[in-house]
Amino acid sequence: MIKFVSNKGGGEAVDFETAILDGYAADGGLYVPERLPQISAEQLAQWKELSYKELAFEIMSLFIDREIISAKDLRSVIAQAYGTFEKDEVIPIPKLKSQENTYIMELFYGSTLSFKDIGLAFLVNLVDFFLQRKNKKLSIIVATTGDTGPAAASYIAGKSTMDAWVLYPKGMITEEQERQMTTLHHSNVHPVGVYNCPEGGDDLDVVIKKLYANQAFKEKVNLSSVNSINWGRIMIQTVHYFYGYLQIADTMGEGICMAVPSGAFGNLCAGGIARKMGLPIKTYIAAQNKNECLKRIFNEGVFSMAPIYETVSSAIDILVPMNFWRYLYFCVGGDTQKIKQWMEELDKNRTVRFDPKTWEAYREGYLSASVSDEKTMELIKTIFDAEGYLMDPHTAVALAVANKLKEDIGDCKVIVLATAHPSKFPQIIKQSLGVDSLPTAATHPSIEKAKVKSQKGYTADHTHLEDALLDAMENHWAQKETA
Known about the structure:
The protein is of the alpha/beta class.
């Protein structure tokens, strides 16, 4: 049985179910498996013809012991998670016509039209399965810079085992993303728009960490999270890396590159772990906008917190890529003391410079670069004019950076991860294409329906957000207990 430990080294090893339901580890660290399952080239070849759901079952079975969840129940959770996706294949991977050897992995066919649906559809249904079995309820708290919140709210909506408290920086996400949360009228969904967040979603993460550190409150409302701090999100996201590779590679062992629009490093952390499990990806490209946190980490060996910029690719406007610490754990041989020391140094000084050996260890197989908003929007128009294919701004960041690094990655197939449907960013699409009305490809029925629905939710100022949440969450929990 694989046990799970904190990457900061505190507390005892726990089983899979405990790690999933807790979210954060007891010491404030991130749960990681004590060991990663290894997958051979022969095993990869056997998986080549599997559907996404079948592949998800095989890979999840490597992490989840049958004593925790039976094969039948795991298949049921997977079927429930992806049965509502628009495409039967879950993740289509079309080839661009105007660029050689370039494929787009479309991760946006879930209920909220973003790649976060891939992880949260599975994780929320898994958590619900565990909670029903234990006859327990949780308060789920999530911070979002655009896509995590809508996905979490959508999959939790109507579930009797969970309440979703979804925090977002007011005015720093699109109206379409906001309405995906505020037009859900289920009594267990609570959107919270937060004003005055100078560091965007990172400000919200700070408050959530304080709530987790408040042990009495945490126990009173059974606090947990389905953000990418939860191991379950990282674990299920390894699947689309395996799936994309198996769909595109002609032979097992072929060196393929993947370009990922990157902010909090949750998606790329999963990719890095997939490679450490045996997936033969040649190069991962950490594609960034003007907020270059990962570019500094990979290109300079420095983890630093600089002023945040609002960009057209708002979901990756991130200062602190929390999941980098999780990936780093596997790059330093599980040295939890080093991880803890570096994390504390960042909190204290807002910067960490890694030693050359560590820098070399984690940067292997990664490239990173950034592109401007102007280049991002220019590429959206170029590809649309050339072949009628419309990208959202985050996908455009990934493709633009892949093109920028063409000489560095050499002659290999490139899979660009498309992380959101363009209908979530109508103003940016109009501006990019230079049009007054949206093309059909930039619309979606669910987005249009949300435009005419009434909205609900809380608002709070960041300066008193912690107290506001304590009051709201405790009162709601007390009302549920007496109902």
